[in-house]
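As a warm-up, study this chain.
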Amino acid sequence: MAIIEELNRRGVIRAAALYVAIAWGGTEILVFLIDALQGEQVAGPFRKYLAILFIAGFPVAMYLAWTRDLGLRARRVVAAGAMAAVLVGLLIWLVPEPSPAPGKTEASFNDINPKSIAVLPFVNMSDDADNIYFSQGISEELLNVLARLPGLKVSSRTSSFHFAGRDVPLQEIAAQLAVRHILEGSVRKSGNTVRITAQLIDAQTDTHLWSDTYDREVLDTFAVQGEIAEEIVGQLELTLNEPVQTKRPTEVEEAYDKYLRGWHFLRQSWAAENMAKAAEYFTAAIELDPEYAQAHAMLSLTRTSQGNFRHLAPAEVFPAARESVTTALELDENLPEAHAALGWITLSYEYDWRKAEKAFRRTAELAPSDLLGNQGLSFALQASGRLDEALAASRRAFELDPLNIWPRSGLTEVYYKQHDFDAALEQLLVLLEMQPDDPLTLVSIGSLYAMKGMPEEAREYGSRAASFMGGDPNLELYIAQLHALLGEETEARTLLKQALAQRDEMFVSPGSIAIVYTHLGEHELAIDWLYRGIEEYDSYMFNLLYPDFDALRSHPRFIALCEQLRMPCAESL
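Now compare it with the structure written out below.
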């Protein structure tokens, strides 16, 4: 106690308190100013240098304060500064710095493919705000041109467009998308004339490599896309066997406008109403120009999606999708979108896994950075039982489009079929962060917890999913599956009965019904519904490798069904 009394008598304690305030406040002000002027890369090290300086001066300051060689005020300031130095230094040393986002550090930038690029949605500079469909459509078309260039990694649309309207530094965008370069720009449309401004940026060095402005008529924007692509080829020193190929897909300006409007609705979400509007606009484009191959291809893709997402009965939409893609390929056999549509038709409707694989490989060949080819290939490989190859394809798709929920869902599918429940759950929990109120994600998490023998967690997520049910019979079936897994037979049968009652009004998946019966132990009924799934062209049929069907693998009728589908889904295979 004597030493404390002496420190107090000499004014050291009071001096320390004063200096804590001065040193801490001064440090924060200086760091704030440097951060604003030079950025965190300079401000961060500066903070540590200050701490080191204060710590080094601490013994000297304490000595001066103790000896009272200085005036009282000076002694207090000096001693307080020394004490503050210790506190600042300890805090900086003990508190860890925030973990950088993947790819955000300089070291990770060095690992990024230098021949990689993301196309951000071009800003709509038109007087009419509704013209955003046109500016984003131009970005989309340009991205598609670049995606077809061999040797260039192009971040897919969903991840690139994730940053639309957001004030995010380009370096951070590039880090999240794992690309070296960013292409951004603007579009101003007035009548049938367009001004397009584009600039290419090296995100690692934050330098502008190239920029230009183009004043053209609407249909001449296709030539602009080719010119921009040629500039990028030169700046990134890509080696091409032939010049960039761009041509007008239509000579009818209004048809092109309808096509871009259709794409605008697809970009919003896969909701039923958006798909319906997209199909309406693609159909309108075809009516204006029956030779518009891309419009035929996109109409086919939209129809297949309506069937796969159960917005419409597969037997109703897949024949029309088949007709559209046949026309598209007759008009242009090298159209990636058409081969992607063909892949989904042969996978989900015709159950021809090899033909689907061939179509998706052709898609990826024509457009190496296209998500549809790589993700579709994963599903075709899953149906063939080649899960390791499917996982590799899903990972490629994820690298192309890391902020898109679809590739991550694809990873989840493969892990689940491999019975790697921990890896599947990890992906689902990330998906939930991306879409917190998605009922399908919630109930899928619940089912995985049930598979892992964690009933309380399963019920928690199942309850959250049930709050969004809203009379959707296919969602009711997913929740019924969870109840059946948990041994809650009454609840499962109640939801099953509700879903079955709606089959006359809308498409209700026979495959999902089969899973409920499997978990209820009614295996004959489950297999009956699987055969009905084939009759109704349920896309669920290429998922017979799900662990949910493990109880059926040795059943003679299930083995026969697997043989009919040419799928290695039976235990004996």
